[in-house]
C-alpha cells in the first residue's frame, strides 16, 4: 500500500508541476499587394525556443520571426517577409509577444495561393500549437484555416473555405488540447473529485459511500462546472464580458486552493455543485481568451464556440472515465485518507505557487 500511495503522490506531483502550453495565434489579412500577419506568441513558450526572449531586443525578435515564418509561392519561390513591429505585453498573465508582419509574394506569384509555413516555438517545443486564421479585409469575418504543430509546420492558403462550419475540427482539437495541457483547469477538477466517493460524518470525510454516491457526485460536479464555464466561454468569446487576464488567472489558482482545502476536510459539503458552477464561471473566461483573439464573428463564431466547448467536454469526460474507477478502487482502502491528503496538500502548494506568480 505504501508503494501505491507513493505512486499516486508522484503522479499528482508530475501533473501539478507540468506547465500549461498556451497556443500561438496568427491572423492573416489580405491587402492589395501583400498579406498582413498579426502574431501572438506566449512568452513562456517562446523562451523555451529562444532563451532570453523576455529581454531580447526588437531587432533580435524580428530576426527570429523572419527566420521561422516562411510563405512560399506555388512555384517554390519564397515570399518577402518584413517584420514591421514587435512589442511585449508583459502586463498579461501569461505574457505575450505580439508582432505585425508584411508578407509579399515574388513577382508574378498569386497573392491568394501560397503555402504558409511557421515553426516559431514548435521547432523546439513539440507540444506547441499555432492556430492560423484568415480574413479578406479589416472588417471582414475571420476564417480558421487550420493548426500548425511539430508534425505539421505548413498549410496551403487558397482564400478560405466559405462554409460556415469550416475550421470546427481544428477548434474542437484546440479545446481538447486546452484541457490536456491546461494543468490549472485539470488540477481544479481532479482535486474537487478527490472526496467524490466519500461520506461526511461529524465534519470529516468518512468511509466509502458506494458507487451510486460517487456517480451522483460526479454528475453534479461535472455538470455544474460545465454549465458555469459554458456561460462565460460564450459571453467572453462574444466580448460581452471581458476581465483582465491577471485576476482571472489568480482566481483560477484560488479555485484550486479551495478545492484542496475541501479535499482535506469538508468545507462546503453537499454544496460542491454550486462551488463547481461558481468557479466554472471563472475558468470559462480563461477558455474564452483562447478563441477571442481569432476574431471570428457571425455563424463562424457560434459554431467555433460550440466546437471548442465540445472539445473541452470530450477531454473532461475522458479524464472522468479514467478517474472514476480509480476513485472506487482507492476509496475502499483504509489508507485512502493518506492518498487524499497527500494529493490535496500538493494541490494546495501548487495553487499557492501559482497565486504568487500571478500577483
Summarize model confidence as the mean pLDDT: 83
Poorly predicted runs: 1-21
Q: Gyration radius, to the nearest Å?
A: 23 Å
The rough form would be described as elongated
* Sheet/helix structural class: alpha+beta
Percentage of residues in DSSP E strands:
15-25%
Distance between the termini: 39 Å
Main sheet, how many strands, which sense, barrel? 6 strands, mixed
Report what the structure shows.
Mean pLDDT is 83; it is low at 1-21. The strands form 3 sheets. Strands 4-5-2-1-7-8 form a 6-stranded mixed sheet, with helices on both faces. A 3-stranded antiparallel sheet has the order 3-6-9. With 359 residues, the protein is of the alpha+beta class. It is 52% helix and 19% strand. A hairpin with a 2-residue loop joins strand 10 and strand 11 (204-208). It is elongated. The longest helix has 34 residues, at 298-331. The protein is built from 10 helices and 11 strands.
Describe this structure in a few short sentences.
By secondary structure, this protein is α+β, with helices and mostly antiparallel strands. It is built from ten helices and eleven strands. The two termini are 39 Å apart.
Amino acid at each position: 500500500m505504501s508503494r501505491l500511495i507513493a505512486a499516486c503522490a508522484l503522479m499528482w506531483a508530475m501533473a501539478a508541476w507540468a506547465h500549461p502550453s498556451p497556443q500561438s495565434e496568427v491572423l492573416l489579412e489580405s491587402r492589395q499587394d501583400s498579406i498582413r500577419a498579426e502574431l501572438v506568441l506566449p512568452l513562456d513558450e517562446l523562451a523555451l525556443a529562444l532563451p532570453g526572449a523576455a529581454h531580447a531586443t526588437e531587432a533580435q525578435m524580428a530576426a527570429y520571426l523572419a527566420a521561422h515564418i516562411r510563405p512560399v509561392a506555388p512555384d517554390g519561390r519564397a515570399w518577402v517577409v518584413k517584420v514591421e513591429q514587435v512589442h511585449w505585453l508583459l502586463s498579461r498573465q501569461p505574457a505575450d509577444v505580439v508582432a505585425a508582419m508584411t508578407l509579399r509574394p515574388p513577382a508574378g506569384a498569386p497573392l491568394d495561393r501560397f503555402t504558409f509555413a511557421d515553426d516559431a516555438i514548435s521547432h523546439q517545443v513539440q507540444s506547441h500549437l499555432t492556430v492560423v486564421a484568415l480574413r479578406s479585409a479589416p472588417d471582414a469575418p475571420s476564417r480558421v484555416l487550420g493548426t500548425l504543430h511539430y508534425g505539421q509546420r505548413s498549410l496551403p492558403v487558397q482564400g478560405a473555405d466559405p462554409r460556415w462550419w469550416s475550421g470546427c475540427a481544428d477548434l474542437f482539437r484546440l479545446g481538447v488540447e486546452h484541457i490536456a495541457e491546461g494543468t490549472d483547469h485539470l488540477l481544479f477538477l481532479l482535486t474537487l473529485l478527490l472526496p467524490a466517493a466519500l461520506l461526511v460524518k461529524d465534519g470529516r470525510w468518512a468511509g466509502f459511500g458506494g458507487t451510486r454516491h460517487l456517480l451522483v457526485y460526479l454528475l453534479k460536479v461535472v455538470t455544474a462546472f460545465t454549465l458555469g464555464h459554458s456561460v462565460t466561454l460564450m459571453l467572453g468569446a462574444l466580448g460581452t464580458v471581458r476581465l483582465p487576464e491577471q485576476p482571472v488567472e489568480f482566481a483560477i489558482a484560488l479555485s484550486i486552493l479551495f478545492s484542496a482545502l475541501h479535499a482535506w476536510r469538508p468545507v462546503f459539503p453537499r454544496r460542491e455543485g454550486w462551488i463547481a458552477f461558481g468557479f466554472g464561471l471563472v475558468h470559462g473566461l480563461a477558455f474564452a481568451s483562447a478563441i477571442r483573439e481569432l476574431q471570428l464573428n457571425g455563424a463562424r463564431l457560434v459554431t467555433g464556440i460550440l466546437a471548442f466547448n465540445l472539445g473541452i467536454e470530450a477531454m473532461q469526460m475522458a479524464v472522468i472515465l479514467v478517474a472514476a474507477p480509480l476513485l472506487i478502487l482507492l476509496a475502499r482502502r483504509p489508507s485512502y485518507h493518506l492518498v487524499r491528503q497527500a494529493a490535496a496538500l500538493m494541490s494546495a502548494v501548487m495553487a499557492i505557487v501559482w497565486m504568487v506568480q500571478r500577483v
